[in-house]
Amino acid sequence: MNRSLSETWLTLGALGLLGFFNRMGYLAAELFRLLSQAFSA
Hints:
Blueprint: H1 3-40
């Protein structure tokens, strides 16, 4: 396999994983905020 091609795929995969974890973390923070509001009410 072409080395530059594999590096491109590795970079795309890493960016995709970062975006996925970023979205998951954002959703978890929103859920936690909603839960804390519900319990404090």
